[in-house]
Amino acid sequence: MTDRLPFVDAHVHLWDLDRLRYPWLTPPFADDGPNGSVEAIANTYLLDDYRADAAGWDVRGIVHIDAGADAAHALDETRWLQDMADADGMPNGIVAFADLSDPQVDTLLAAHAAHANVRGIRHIVNWHADPRRSYTPRDVTADDGWAQGYARLKAHGLSFDLQAYPGQFPGLARLIERHPETPVMVNHMGMCIPGEEAEWRDGIAALARLPHVAIKLSGIGFTHRPWHIDQARGLVLAAIDAFGCDRAMVASDFPTDRLFGSFADHLNAYADITHDFTPAERAALFAGNANRLYRLGLSL
Prior knowledge:
Structural class: alpha/beta
Helix content: 25-40%
Distance between the termini: 20 Å
Shape: globular
Largest sheet: 8 strands, parallel
Radius of gyration: 18 Å
């Protein structure tokens, strides 16, 4: 590790394959999806496994992001994580799954929000004209029903974790602007697809103009496989430049990012890229912003 920065990990996944069903971690595995084959991480991954991966870092807290359990088990995942947090202290924040296009989503949002550590919702909505890149068969973010579900987040005090592609950002920015009380965290630097850098820059600029939107520095391997630090540097610095050091958060995305490199590979890269930033800026990027934006209340 480059230096021992306090770290609040803004994007972690845990799963117990004997407890809940995770369709994306269930055979058969294939290389032609947006993540490539996930067979290498299709094993139970719990807090002790995370701590082993993060052993070289001063982890002060973690935010668990929905890990792709079967939609029918969304609330079961939240209950399991809250029990874990009550017993262990982590995860400090929970971002749960809800399908915002479901007309009955309000019931699930209320049930999630009743758990002390729940802070937000994620509904992966990546759609791309190339079906090999898409996570969904169509762009649900263009539907009135999805927008109505999104509008209900405010009533439950929930933020939204946005995982989408840059081509969707202009339309999403218009929706997000109408709901300034709902904080938004853009996942994985906005998932810039090689060859579509101009669209990515325009998309994150549209989102960055909204003061209640922040971005996570993570997931470089989703769109750039293999990735290298010089290529990552341009995207990381552009994301920070767009959002500022007070609205960007370093995150491991482990164990998913293990598909693309070790914990040290990713975190050391972010540390190296930001090496010349001020101590206050780095403290914000690696810990302070995640603590504040996810309302964790940690003493750093």
